[in-house]
């Protein structure tokens, strides 16, 4: 008898772990690791995932009490390593194992079941179904002739097919009603019809010139050293990590391409993670131009059918390279030899809902489990990674840093100027551009060169502020500042989506909710405002292209805008954070930052790190070609090390400052930090629950080795979201502490409490 170890998909904190089920003979051939199955659990039917198949029950389990697997609902989606990765995530991030396993399922697979007409249990609507295309081709043996009567459509179809096989859908575009004509011709043996599997989501080829950068003749010393270290790590096959610490434009992508080529030659495959935002046609194009059809692309802008096809390319072994966002880590590739995480410092690698995993950490675990190597790349590596490289190892795995301080082909890092905006203050408001930035923009327009303008608006969009009392209208459900939308004259909450009209701003009837003053003024600038000012400033023949959440809302808009910028003879690209990363346009000679310090003011210990990273990244967009680049940074806080270090290209001065701050306050990379958020409609219930949990945690960590700090409970920065009150507890622990299991244990130890939810965020990024 064989037994399946099944994790039931019942996401409650009380039920976790796996249970043994017998595999009946009828299912012996189909019930394997990675399958979704139907089992009976606590007297009810439940969907579950098979994480292992064994031939003996665990000791002490009575075989007579073991229930059978009822049905196999879906084919294997993961292997034993995938199952172990999910179980590792469950423990590390205090998340239910079933929720982690869901990450491994085929895209589009639901977790609900229903009974079909035949009375069989099936997974509810599966939108992933593979799609076949009908292709028509003239039959070689067909001997019929096309009759004159009613002949014109038939003849046109036959004529079109003379050139070779063609999709029936395409034929229909040329000959209306071709579908039925083909069927008729096929009946008479004139045409053969074949069903071919269609692969969705490959995407349109891009015209971006840099998407297919030619392969360089010579690699730089830095690139060779990096490839060498990666080759050693790959051959060692035990999860060794190589951090490629290369300035912007130093050729990191080129290193990834060569490293992948090497593992492919050895018959192994590779996974490349790129932040969602920089997963542009440009990045994808470079992988495609090197590896052609051997690449699958996975990201959230694909439909679930498209995602399924790309995922299935990996599962069926038809591709050996998967490029994608965070979730590509769980692609069912076999024989993975290399995992690459580009821009490893990116905060977006931390998932903000359960399981709250960090893709870099999960990638490290995956590489270890698969006997592969992990490559991390960044121009601004995370403090965590730098610290592990300095120590030489982390969790028993070797960490090596390779530095690539130069750009190839003699292109130099841009010169950076800081403009102190306090000296340009004008009480009348004035322009968003200082005169040096204005002059530089005009100069580029005259020279017909390209510029990039960054508007740093993370956390601070445009909002209304009362000029008398300083109050900012906030959402009554969420306590977040409302964002002002110029186009629709409305105030919107970006947390819950509520919106209120502001009648004809600045309408005197709009009053401050706090003091009744009529002087509400717009504070903070939006991309729209920058675009408008640019159009007034620059000659008409300069293209102004705006890229932000609004202009990229539709599918493909991102690529179109970049293509427009690429094709333009002289243009300015204005945008938010999304333009800071990964763009490689050699003709850009000017990068301007409108407001460098907004991120510095966030109530967050990573504020300076984020600001430094962003500025360094966006500065790296300038001067990637032959002409030198210039960067102009406007700020009200010119002396902050995170800003001044960008100007001097001296990372160590910033790092020294940052590490000292972190050390003093016991923050990562010197500690691990978890954020536990409790939320509920009753303020009292949340308060009581939070206190009880804090007491529990304090008692648990009492006397533990190393430095432990339990802070709070306190109100969250956003103390109310969608009418739910929020309090949180912050736990700081030694870097090697097993924080997840400990917090999970504390949470489980509390009696159940209806109406208050708990979110445990281990290694929290946003608080
Ligand atoms: P990064 O990923 O570090 O920002 P890229 O790999 O995008 O850098 O390289 C920047 C530019 O330099 C690209 O246009 C790339 O084609 C080019 N490049 C990379 N390596 C070399 C090399 N060894 N010689 C010449 N050009 C190179
Ligand atoms: Zn007021
Ligand atoms: Zn709201």
From TrEMBL:
Zn(2+) 2 binds at residues 475, 478, 493, 496. Residues 233-399 form the Helicase ATP-binding domain. Signal peptide: none annotated. Residues 507-665 form the Helicase C-terminal domain. It is an enzyme of class 5 (isomerase). Keywords: ATP-binding, DNA replication, DNA-binding, Helicase, Hydrolase, Isomerase, Metal-binding, Nucleotide-binding, Primosome, Zinc. GO terms for biological process: DNA recombination; DNA replication initiation; DNA replication, synthesis of primer; double-strand break repair. Zn(2+) 1 binds at residues 466, 469, 512, 515. GO terms for cellular component: primosome complex. Binds 2 zinc ions per subunit. GO terms for molecular function: 3'-5' DNA helicase activity; ATP binding; ATP hydrolysis activity; DNA binding; zinc ion binding. Its cofactor is Zn(2+). Component of the replication restart primosome. Initiates the restart of stalled replication forks, which reloads the replicative helicase on sites other than the origin of replication. Recognizes and binds to abandoned replication forks and remodels them to uncover a helicase loading site. Promotes assembly of the primosome at these replication forks. This is Replication restart protein PriA. It comes from Parolsenella catena. The lineage of its organism: Bacteria, Bacillati, Actinomycetota, Coriobacteriia, Coriobacteriales.
């Amino acid at each position: 008898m064989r037994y399946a170890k099944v994790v039931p998909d019942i996401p409650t904190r009380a039920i976790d772990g796996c249970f043994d089920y017998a595999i009946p003979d009828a299912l012996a051939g189909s019930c394997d690791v990675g399958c979704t199955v139907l089992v009976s659990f606590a007297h009810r039917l439940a969907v579950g995932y098979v994480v292992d198949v064994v031939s003996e029950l665990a000791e002490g389990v009575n075989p007579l009490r073991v229930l059978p697997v009822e049905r196999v609902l879906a084919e294997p989606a993961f292997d034993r390593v995938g199952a172990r990765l999910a179980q590792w995530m469950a423990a590390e991030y205090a998340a239910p194992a079933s929720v982690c396993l869901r990450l491994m399922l085929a895209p589009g697979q639901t977790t609900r079941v229903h009974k079909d007409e035949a009375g069989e249990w099936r997974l509810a609507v599966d939108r992933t179904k593979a799609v076949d295309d009908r292709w028509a081709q003239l039959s070689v043996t067909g001997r019929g002739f096309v009759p004159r009567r009613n002949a014109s459509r038939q003849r046109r179809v036959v004529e079109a097919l003379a050139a070779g096989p063609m999709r029936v859908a395409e034929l229909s575009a040329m000959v209306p009603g071709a579908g039925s004509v083909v069927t008729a011709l096929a009946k008479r043996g004139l045409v053969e019809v074949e069903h071919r599997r269609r692969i969705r989501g490959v995407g349109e080829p891009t015209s971006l010139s840099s998407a297919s950068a030619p392969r360089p003749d010579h690699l730089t010393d830095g690139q060779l050293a990096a490839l060498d270290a990666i080759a050693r790590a790959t051959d060692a096959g035990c999860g060794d990590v190589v951090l490629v610490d290369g300035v912007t434009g130093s050729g990191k992508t080129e290193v990834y391409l060569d490293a992948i080529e090497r593992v492919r030659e050895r018959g192994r495959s590779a996974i490349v993670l790129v932040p969602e935002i920089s997963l542009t046609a440009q990045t994808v194009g470079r992988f495609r131009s090197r590896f052609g059809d051997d690449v699958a692309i996975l990201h959230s802008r694909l439909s679930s059918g498209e995602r399924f096809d790309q995922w299935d390319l990996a599962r069926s072994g038809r591709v050996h390279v998967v490029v994608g966002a965070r979730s590509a880590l769980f692609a069912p590739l076999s024989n993975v030899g290399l995992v690459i995480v580009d821009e490893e410092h990116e905060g977006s690698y931390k998932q903000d809902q359960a399981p709250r995993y960090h893709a870099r950490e999960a990638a490290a675990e995956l590489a270890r489990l698969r006997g592969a190597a992990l490559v991390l790349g960044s121009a601004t590596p995370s403090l965590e990674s730098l610290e592990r490289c300095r120590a030489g190892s982390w969790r028993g795995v070797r960490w090596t840093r390779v530095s690539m301080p130069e750009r190839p082909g003699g292109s130099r890092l841009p010169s950076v100027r800081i403009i102190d905006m306090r000296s340009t203050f004008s009480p009348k408001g004035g322009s968003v551009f200082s005169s040096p930035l204005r002059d530089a923009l005009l100069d580029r327009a005259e020279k017909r060169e390209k510029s990039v303008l960054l508007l740093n608006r993370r956390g601070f969009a445009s909002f209304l502020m009362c000029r008398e009392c300083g109050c900012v209208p906030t959402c009554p459900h969420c306590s977040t500042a409302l964002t002002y939308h110029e186009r629709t004259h409305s105030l919107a909450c970006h947390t819950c989506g509520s919106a209120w009209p502001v009648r004809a701003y600045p309408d005197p009837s709009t009053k401050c909710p706090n003091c009744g003053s009529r002087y509400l003024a717009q504070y903070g600038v939006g991309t729209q405002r920058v675009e408008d000012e640019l159009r007034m400033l620059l000659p008409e023949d300069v293209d102004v292209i705006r890229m932000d959440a609004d202009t990229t809302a539709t599918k493909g808009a991102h690529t179109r805008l970049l293509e427009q910028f690429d094709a333009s003879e002289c243009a300015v690209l204005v945008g938010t954070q999304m333009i800071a990363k990964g763009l490689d346009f050699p003709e850009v000679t000017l990068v301007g930052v409108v407001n460098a310090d907004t991120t510095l003011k966030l109530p967050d210990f990573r504020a300076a790190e984020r600001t430094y990273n962003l500025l360094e990244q966006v500065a790296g967009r300038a001067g990637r070609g032959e002409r030198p680049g210039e960067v102009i940074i406007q700020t009200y806080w010119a002396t902050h090390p995170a800003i001044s270090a960008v100007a001097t290209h001296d990372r160590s001065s910033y790092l020294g400052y940052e590490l000292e701050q972190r050390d003093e306050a016991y923050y990562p990379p010197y500690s691990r930090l978890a954020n536990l958020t409790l939320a509920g409609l009753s303020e009292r219930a949340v308060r009581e629950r939070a206190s009880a949990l804090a007491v529990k945690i304090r008692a648990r960590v009492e006397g533990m080795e190393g430095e432990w700090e339990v802070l709070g409970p306190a109100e969250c920065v956003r103390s109310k979201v969608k009418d739910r009150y929020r309090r949180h507890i912050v736990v700081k622990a030694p870097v090697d502490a097993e924080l997840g299991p400990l917090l999970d244990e504390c949470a489980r130890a509390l009696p159940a409490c209806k109406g208050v939810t708990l979110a445990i965020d281990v290694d929290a990024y946003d608080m």
